User: Which sequence fits this backbone?
């Protein structure tokens, strides 16, 4: 592969033991573009030393004027209106796809073919088939690939993962997760968006929100074996509905895990008052763990083995203490972090894996994880359409 | 009907405008027997005036010594070890079935045939067929019949009903409810119970806990049209498992309502730390309502129409203010009530309906509601067994 | 003492090992009369066996018609309009003073002189001098005496006491407590009440609400040594204000404990939205304990010695488990109790102490505790008036 | 003044309507240095357009090697080990004092004399006398001066201010605030720190934590008129104790406001489990407002004028909606921010005031506010020492 040399990070200006510099070319400059750029800009001074120094090499978008403004705003070296041109930019070691779902597959596959490391926003693709093609390209490329399931990088979620690791909490009985938002409530009068069109988005609440709940299921609990699902029509809002291209406003599913746990998965865009409420509860043999994204600094834990018995109760753990994930990089205990910091952790992990040739998995989601999430999404849609339980087909 | 005269309540000792006295004969003296007896004993002095004065006429149980002790403890006039004998007691106007599920149908049907008013613990029966026979007997009897879904009588739940009445909160998008307990956790070492045997209980977490969540769905949201469900094997505990007579430790279902709402239903006996957590969330067009039985004095409400917008948030309403359901009967604002008081409200409603010949529905659950709940339970079991969405068959 | 024989409880009808019966004569039939009567009526069937069976011997109030109605409502054997006459009733073993503050001292002293056991509502008196006279009478009588600080009998509060016992949580650094209500908010338009007149009440928020916070300080933390206080004028409401007989709407104090802890005490009747919020936080060397009366089934605990460190957090302990105070008498875990049950526990303790000649202290508050609380109240008023720190004078 | 020209911001490189560039020279590079630097680095791309573009001109610290490393880490142009030299740097328009309390007065006064705009960390000084000298220098200089009370810049706190503005919530009855931390708990074994020595810090929990609660009182409620306070000896930890130079581990005060409100103020470093809990509650005539820094995205509000009455309750407002303070600069609703962002808002305000010659007050705290806070701190220490209520002396 021509660009294979890119995977060997260039060393920084300051010499041998300084962290390497890695050029990033980003596609997209709106919501996710801002979140990713912010993360890249914070890494060099928040981590001491940073795993690598990201260089803001290039930014790409269709609207030349807007992307030029974004270049100035975030400090990218160059801007492009054609991602193919950006992929030819030698300063780009990492291709970061922060664009809508319909511009994931083609650019990522091309980037992989060009030997770039690739970070791609979630959901990885609009279908398992599309995601599968991306995974195959990633395997062929041999570079690092990551699906930006940033909630793996919430300290409280990582703490849950640490607690559950190696079955430390015993058999898991249940996982119930829901991702609730309200932005499609009629009273809020949200305008149109690519997120409401099947062509651009693949699905609605399912791919946008549900995918996070599915990925966390895979991250924390295990493989989802089967789903029995319903969706709700896009009645609350128009979107692509007239053209028959509408998406689900909501879905709900009863799920079974390969190891026997059962539970529910749900996402909706019409839950009044729920701004960004991804929450889950895991009932294991020796503990229950609960999380709510609107209070992301906290993990709620109940321990069956608490001593003495009389003080057993749900612990509101403020995950900002010295021993907690990433806490050292930030502030003293109780000085809470925000949503944006999940991206800082996520990119730090990605850069470390690239710089030190480490594995993205299991802490980060690879394209394989992105593909497996897409397989569950497909199964949910198939179940809702057929009225039958659907066993997830993970075979590529 | 011979005993029809019983349905005309006898007047009390104090004369014309004093509330009538109604004799109650109860079957069962353990958990539910205690809860019901406590309710009956409180009604005469908590309500001023009470809708009727319940007379503790008789108590029945299989263990003669234990039931005699219970008679003394609660102050019943007589005790029986044969419910048939109790039904012949003329002092018994109301038959209150507080026994296990497998002694619901026969005694209740006999009581109805004897012209008694009947209160029966939930779930009404072990199957829709059994419940249907009870409903038919009730219709034939013409007396009052009620299924003891006491959580309709939590002030916060009644407040939710009042807020939702006549579609006042607009279209309902979602209902998600779960009833979580932990008593079958291996670490707690619960012993055997009739609740773990299919023969006595009909089902496990489904009928015991899930039935409450189903009844509240019918009470607050509307008719459940279809369910897609999974159950979890009774592995965590033995119960009747060896004999193939075990029951579900948990179930989860994606549900569709007749008017289009979707959601989830779930119950489990293996959720560490969840002592008695029945919770629901209803997402409607202009509000979201949330409830948690472990904090039963509170209703959590989000209003889309809150003015000004900047103060919109979930309200923790402490449902103890003068305008709140049943608040007048109790204590000043903030002087919270407990779980047992749901039975006081429930029996007060039942006595009032008997005394004043009013309708149990829609505030209370009739045998028809008990039957409809059983139909949903059957559908859930059928869906879990077949791996298909099952449309609930409500036809008797 | 003539009536000394009363202190030997009469045995019940059922024979030797049955609990004794004790006749109760109560003064007052409104808010507290209802709460006390309810407690007395529940004890015989909630506790198995009960420590004693209270017999509702007599009820007394100034309004003959109203007290007769209360007699019928609660089932007292007789009623009186003169407490002196009631004290001559031989069926009265226990005098229960549930009347306003200005009818505490004289009747209680007379009852003690008549050899009755005495339960008196809080605050014990309108001043330390008045309380001191009551305490002296109690000491002289040799019967049981109790001040009805019922919040010592909240299971969560008792659990806090058990955890703190014998200094088990190490040195205590802080106690901060406040009792917030809203009933005097102008918008609520509360009418006049004896609670707003200095002559009848002694003080306002201080004696009515603050006394609970002070008693819990003595119960849980230790002796209050000094207070530096301010009060707020009764401006928000009229009450006895015109006549110069108004009471404090609120007070706030910085406090020092004899063993070195510091903290704050506060009470108010003008805190919008606070229905009945008595809350405290105790910071000790190895734990913090928090309580809120509006969620009285819960104790919130943080343990410094939690293992592993990463799961340290505030525990919401639902104090309804088998090992928790009084839990056995009630319902299964998570089936919460209400405010009224604190009186059930309180009277059960009192009856047990009378029946078995056990000490009221330290679990219950004696007249000595009532006196000590009054001494702190006096010190708070003196500090507010003088603008100086006042050391509490506990000497009788 | 020679350097007065500095107060006219230099225009940016990009031309006329681009925001001006302002050079910042910072003293201190540890906790506060990091927080301030992070804020400065985020402003240019978070605000569109930013009020001004801060140029990281210089950083100063005593340890040459460490400060050189900090320069590289954060990207400052130059570093100094002598603040006097930094003040002569013409690129420095703004002097930002992020050092310990004992290096506030002299450098800030010098900076003001040099015509710099000055931001100084809180508490402004170790005593009112010291703060007064700084205020006089600021008045003489005519440049912008700000005390870094960053919690005025929490969106929820700003929202509280907006709600209270112009007495919109009616008379204020109470303000109760406490700032609780645990870092001096013996079990945590914190090492020594300048924060434990009176010479360097002035006071302990009072100046470090209490000053925030005092400033918020002034910001939200009004002038504190008098305090009755106690402090707790530094027993829990050693610090400068041996030398008689220890500081308060905690203080508590009953307070009176000029307009009649009463309440409590408290701070401690020995509250187990309280990581960074600054909380307050304001009881006003038509609403109660509550805030807790550990959940800084939320404001809890109770409205007496809520319609209908039955849904009155405390609202948990997630202050991330479009109409909320600073929300537009960040992320969609429910995508919460962190503690660090308070500094971003604070510096954005400061830069805007400098760039557009606007007033720092009332949104930001000036040196006058810093002085007034110091006057309250002095009064608290005087009250604790004398055992008397002390009226705050605000006269310079």
Assistant:
């Amino acid at each position: 592969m021509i660009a294979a040399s890119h995977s060997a990070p260039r060393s920084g200006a300051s010499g041998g033991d300084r962290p390497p510099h890695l050029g990033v070319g980003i596609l997209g400059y709106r919501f996710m573009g801002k979140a990713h750029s912010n993360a890249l800009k914070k890494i060099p001074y928040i981590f001491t030393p940073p795993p690598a120094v990201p260089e803001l090499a290039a930014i790409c978008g269709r609207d030349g004027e807007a992307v030029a403004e974004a270049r100035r705003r975030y400090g990218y070296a160059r801007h492009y209106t054609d991602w193919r041109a950006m992929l030819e930019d030698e300063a780009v070691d990492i291709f970061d796809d922060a664009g809508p779902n319909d511009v994931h597959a083609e650019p990522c596959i091309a980037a992989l073919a060009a030997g770039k490391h690739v970070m791609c926003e979630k959901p990885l693709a609009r279908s398992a088939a599309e995601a599968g093609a991306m995974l195959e390209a990633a395997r062929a490329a041999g570079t690092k690939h990551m699906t930006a399931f940033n909630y793996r990088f919430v300290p409280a979620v990582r703490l849950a993962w640490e607690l559950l690791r190696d079955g430390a909490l015993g058999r898991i009985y249940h996982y119930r997760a829901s991702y609730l938002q309200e932005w499609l409530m009629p009273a809020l009068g949200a305008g149109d968006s690519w997120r409401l069109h099947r062509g651009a988005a693949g699905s609605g609440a399912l791919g946008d929100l549900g995918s996070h709940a599915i990925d966390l299921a895979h991250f924390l609990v295990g493989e989802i074996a089967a789903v029995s699902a319903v969706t709700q029509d896009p009645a609350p809002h128009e979107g692509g509905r007239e053209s028959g291209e509408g998406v689900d406003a909501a879905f709900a599913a009863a799920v079974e895990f390969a190891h026997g746990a059962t539970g529910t998965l749900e996402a909706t865009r019409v839950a009044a008052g729920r701004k960004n409420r991804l929450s889950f509860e895991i009932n294991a043999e020796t503990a229950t763990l609960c999380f709510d994204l609107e209070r992301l600094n906290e993990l709620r834990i109940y321990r069956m083995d608490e001593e003495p018995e009389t003080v057993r109760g749900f612990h509101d753990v403020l995950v900002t203490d010295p021993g907690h994930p990433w806490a050292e990089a930030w502030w003293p205990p109780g000085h809470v972090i925000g949503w944006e910091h999940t991206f800082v952790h996520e990119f730090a992990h990605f850069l470390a894996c690239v710089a030190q040739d480490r594995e993205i998995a299991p802490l980060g989601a690879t394209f394989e994880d992105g593909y497996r999430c897409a397989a569950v999404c497909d199964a949910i849609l198939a179940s809702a359409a057929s009225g039958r339980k659907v066993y997830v087909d993970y075979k590529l």
User: Anything to note?
Assistant: The domain at 2-151 of chain B is CATH 3.40.50.720 (Rossmann fold). The first strand of chain B starts at residue 21 and ends at 27.
